[in-house]
Design a protein that fits this description.
- This protein is of the alpha+beta class.
- Helix content is 30%, strand content 21%.
- It contains 10 helices and 21 strands.
- It has helices at residues 156-163, 169-186, 284-326, 334-372, 443-464, 486-491, 501-525, 553-565, 590-595, 629-642; strands spanning 3-5, 10-12, 17-35, 47-48, 54-55, 58-59, 65-73, 83-89, 107-112, 117-122, 131-140, 143-153, 400-407, 416-421, 428-431, 470-476, 539-547, 571-577, 597-599, 604-608, 615-619.
- Strands 1, 2, 3, 4, 5, 6, 7, 8, 9, 10, 11 and 12 form a 12-stranded mixed beta sheet that branches. Strands 16-17-18-15-19 form a 5-stranded parallel beta sheet, with helices on both faces. The chain has a 4-stranded antiparallel beta sheet with strand order 14-13-21-20.
- Helix 8 links the parallel strand 17 and strand 18 (571-577).
- The longest helix has 43 residues, at 284-326.
Length: 646
């Protein structure tokens, strides 16, 4: 649960690898200082700022921006460091405000790497101050905590650094301001101010998507945070309403490399050139993961702003037309016609400006997607990516896995990879239901596509894990999907032949249930070394096809048990089924349906976003026509297993 701090309050930190998110009403400089036990900064090498953004265990943004993400690894800090102070300052000499009173109250949040918010602080009561110590992370008796500070300085960076005991405070403040000025020269120019009568809206941060049956599923690149958690500030943080901000957020967390010295500077107002990996993170994989999540946020936010602007324009036109109709003197005649025409013209103007801003932002996102997609590693890449041709079994488990793509109707060709964290926190339900037949696909074809989708997900999981670290079991009680499972069975990457008949179903379920029991007892008793030597410690995936064929009440109970208890000890479930076919078991299977992430074998808009109200369309993974990439990948997985991981 998020702790909303007030000035002076502290709160324990949930871990040592953290992200600090900053949101303000305009461009600010974000930095951090390292302090010893007395809180003193020993030298300029203990200050992270746009001119020197990286220190051991600490990374800050390279330029001024309205939103920042700072990466902190407390375990990687030098031993003498006992305090990390997060600093915010207004850019100097760029025509901006002289004090924080001209901006919305800055908002600062400390989150874990999966986006779960631990503590937040809104810095209020700032006036003429141009620099402020927002938060400090400090070590006390071996444990790290966060404290809300909110100490402002009218003298700016120089006064703030001097107060922290830095002898070269004024020289360093000048160097930071110079670095920020250079960064602002490369940044995108702010759009002109909107007229006062333009659309007004409050846009919240995009949150977890929710399937039609009501359970939240993580959006790409992030586990679901608690609903209402601020992942970024609304357009109007004070809640009073304000002009719609259509500017592409740009995620100025880590600026792209500056152009080569020979390259001419970009004209003012030219969008920044997209760069793959332009996000915070300790590795390129983590940077790309965070960038994909940022793209999802941007698409959700800019579309929400557009839809809100259109709703506002519609509501305003209706009010103006109602006013005309309510006056009998203006219902007929030239006066009424002119008023109606004026209302429609104003509506068209508002909608046109909103659409132009949306198209601009979507074009920038599309350009970013064109750069990011070819740079994605195999776990994140589409099956059509050339990266699969050079695939080799990884040595480590990746951060996340791609399960498909997401898009919105405003631009269907702009697809955002749907990434989920590994290891899986919940199983998957590949829906072969009759409700999907509105896609002009008959039931038989839907069942075939559902099994093909399950095989594609299983192959990607096998390819994402180091050789031998992931096992796949299959229950195909009637043998109806033998052809679909042929790439897996032929390559020998399954833990055993697909189980058939009631006896096969009971044997596989009993074996996996026993494994869950043994591991649970070992973990709870702190006796992991007491596990049987023949126990396979790899992650396990059970694919169940054609449910409920071959299942009796005992088998259904074991299936429920695996779905509830299995993920915590490395046993995951993938159902290929139609919910209507399972209705014979009554409400017994409803918890199972809700516990699993529902995916479809055909594009479907069943994923709802409760924060911005979008219905995201899910696109399942697709192999290029005639491609043999599936067989090639599973054969390389099998080869790596035979060769001990090589």
């Amino acid at each position: 649960m998020t702790a909303e701090l007030v000035r002076g309050q502290n709160h324990p930190l949930p871990g040592t690898r953290l992200e600090i998110r900053v949101s303000a009403g305009g461009p600010v400089v974000a930095g951090a200082t390292l302090g010893d036990e007395q809180g003193r900064v020993r030298g300029v090498e203990w200050v992270a700022h746009p001119g020197s953004p990286t220190l051991p265990g600490l990374e800050v943004s390279r330029q001024a921006a309205a939103d920042h993400r700072l990466a902190v690894d407390l375990d990687a800090l030098p031993d003498p460091v006992h305090r990390v102070s997060v600093l915010l300052a207004l850019p100097v000499g760029v025509g901006g405000p002289a004090g924080f009173r001209a901006l919305a109250a800055p908002f600062v949040a400390v989150t874990t790497l999966d986006g779960a918010e631990a503590a937040s602080y809104t810095i209020t009561d700032l006036d003429t101050e141009s620099a402020v110590v927002a938060l400090e992370l400090y070590r006390r008796q071996g444990a790290w905590k966060v404290r809300a500070v909110g100490q402002g300085y009218a003298g700016g960076l120089a006064e703030m650094l001097t107060d922290q005991g830095l002898p070269e405070a004024r020289e360093l403040a000048g160097a930071i301001n110079d670095a920020v000025a250079r960064g602002l020269a490369r940044s995108v120019a702010a759009p002109p101010a909107r007229p006062a009568d333009d659309a007004r809206v409050r846009t919240g941060p995009p949150g977890p998507a929710t399937p039609a049956h009501g359970e939240p599923v993580p959006p790409p690149g992030q586990a679901p945070p608690p609903q209402g958690q601020p992942g970024s500030t609304p357009a109007d943080p004070q809640g009073e309403g304000g002009p719609v901000n259509y500017t592409h957020p740009g995620r100025q967390t880590t600026a792209p490399p500056p152009p080569a010295p020979t390259a001419p500077p970009a004209p003012p107002g030219t969008p920044a050139r997209p760069v793959a990996g332009d996000a915070t993170g300790w590795s390129m994989e983590e940077r790309l993961y965070n960038q994909v999540w940022g793209m999802f946020e941007d698409l959700a936010r800019t579309t929400a702003a557009y839809r809100s602007a259109v709703d506002f324009a519609d509501s305003r036109m209706e009010q103006e037309l109602d006013k005309v109709l309510s006056d009998p003197r203006s219902r007929i005649g030239g006066t009424g016609d002119a008023a109606r025409e004026t209302a429609r013209a104003r509506h068209a103007d508002l909608v046109g400006r909103a659409r132009a801003a949306l198209d601009r932002d979507l074009a920038q996102l599309a350009a970013e997607a064109d750069v990011v997609e070819p740079a994605l590693p195999p776990a994140y890449a589409a099956w059509s990516s050339p990266v699969w041709h050079g695939y080799r079994a990884p040595m480590e488990i990746p951060m996340a896995l791609r399960l498909g793509d997401l898009h919105l109707p405003e631009r269907v060709d702009l697809r955002i990879p749907m990434l989920v964290r590994l290891p899986l926190e919940r199983g998957l339900w590949i829906d072969s239901g009759k409700a999907l037949t509105n896609h002009a696909t008959d039931v038989t074809e839907l069942r075939r596509l559902a099994v093909d989708t399950a095989v594609a997900h299983a192959a990607r999981l096998l390819a994402a894990y180091p050789a031998g670290r992931f096992q796949v079991h299959v229950i195909d009680a009637a043998g109806a999907a033998a052809a679909a499972f042929a790439p897996l069975t032929g390559a020998g990457v399954l833990a055993g032949p697909p189980a058939a008949g009631a006896a096969g179903v009971s044997e596989v379920l009993g074996r996996l249930t026993q494994r869950v029991d043994l591991v649970q007892m070992a973990v709870r008793g702190g006796a992991a070394d007491a596990l049987p030597p023949d126990l396979d410690t790899a992650e396990q995936l059970l694919i169940v096809n054609d449910f409920p064929h071959g299942f009796d009440d005992r088998a259904v109970t074991m299936l429920r048990y695996l779905a509830d208890e299995g993920p915590a000890v490395g046993v995951h479930l993938m159902m290929v089924a139609d919910r209507e076919d399972a209705a014979a078991y009554g409400p017994l299977l409803d918890p199972l349906w809700r516990a699993l992430l529902r995916l479809t074998p055909v594009p479907d808009d069943h994923l709802a976003d409760p924060w911005v109200g979008h219905a995201w369309t899910y696109d399942p993974p697709v192999f290029p026509p005639g491609s043999q990439v599936l067989r090639e990948v599973v054969e390389r997985v099998a080869t790596a297993r035979r060769n001990g991981g090589r």
